[in-house]
Amino acid sequence: MMSDRFFHFGSYRPTPAQELLLQASLLKEKAALTAWEQWRSSVDIEVLDAESYVLLPQLYQNLLAHGVEDPHMARLKGIYRRNWCANQLQIKALTTLLSHLKSGGIEVIVLGDVALSHIENYRSISTSLHFLVRAAEIENTIQRLTGVNWHISPALAQTPIHLQDVQKHSLYLQGHLFWAIPQDYTDEEVWHYATPNRDDLPGWRLSPTDQFLHGCARTFFKSSSPQIYGIADAIMLIRKSGNDLDWMRLITQAQRYQLILPVRNMLILLHKVFQYSAPSWVLPALCQMPIAQAEWLNYQVLASDQRSWVRSTIAQSLYPLSHLETQLLQLRHRPFPGRQVLKSLLKPKKSAL
């Protein structure tokens, strides 16, 4: 049993209505039906927040599986069908693009919403694409994408690199997923544990452990608006992965990547919303780990952590330098006078030892 002392939240948490929607969409039998009745009577289904709307296809599938008959089912069915069609078009475009990059010798790990497309029709996937390639292949990848009418967005200092096509569709490209020294080892770990996509989709997807870590980071990053589907993604990933989710590696890497707070928050919310419990040793281990100052700054923190404000304030003084470094790194991939000089200055120095 988890101790009640863990159940404290910071500025991020779902609303009561959002919790009911999550339960109605993803729980089973009586729990799902009770949540559905309570949610339906507490909201206007015609006027929903964008985060809740994304879960309606999954809500429809769950209600259909439980034999629910309700006037709202017709509307939910229409949303589900539109979602299915849009997802098929997106996956078709993704397949073409991945095949083009693979023909140029570039391997891609698909990130973001599309990475969950192997969970059939689970929810709407984003119209933007997110790719991870090896850092040494960034410029080659940009050249290949440019050849099929993608171009780098004019906005500077974007991490990941933002590209658009003529229809203004977005593609985000990055060479690193997590940041930890030595960076080359961190990157290689991600690729080592990655698994091939299903047969009809070229490229790779993250291991369940890395996908869970990445999902936690996306959900609780401070600059992001609350996204309840991040919580839904986490429980679906756990169910789908089963024993493939390596809990020991997860907490070890959470510490290396400074993701202790996001993982803690996610596990607490999964227990609160879905009554899901990770192995009994996982959360206590995470709660005993020291947290770096930068992590306090980057992520939504637990209300029970009294030192968070002080630590975040201290870490804030480090942010301008980090922001400047990000801007300089992004300029490497944009044409401007002195680009070669900047690239040589930013090149990692070899040790004299």
Cα end-to-end separation: 51 Å
CA gyration radius, whole angstroms: 21 Å
Determine the number of helices (DSSP H or I, runs of at least 4 residues). Answer: 16
Helix content: 40-55%
Proportion of residues in β-strands: 5-15%
Return the string of H and E elements: HHHHHEEHEEEHEEHHHHHHHHH
- Mean pLDDT across all residues, rounded? 82
Q: What profile does the largest beta sheet have?
A: 5 strands, mixed
| Poorly predicted segments | 1-9, 318-330, 349-353
Number of strands: 7
The global form is globular
Order of strands across the main sheet? 1-2-5-4-3
Q: Structural class, from helix and strand content?
A: alpha+beta
Characterise this structure.
The structure is a single chain. This protein has 353 residues and is of the alpha+beta class. Helix content is 52%, strand content 6%. It has a domain at 207-317. It contains 16 helices and seven strands. The strands form two sheets. The chain has a five-stranded mixed beta sheet with strand order 1-2-5-4-3, covered by helices on one side. Strand 6 and strand 7 (204-205) form a beta hairpin. The model is unreliable at 1-9, 318-330 and 349-353 (pLDDT under 50).
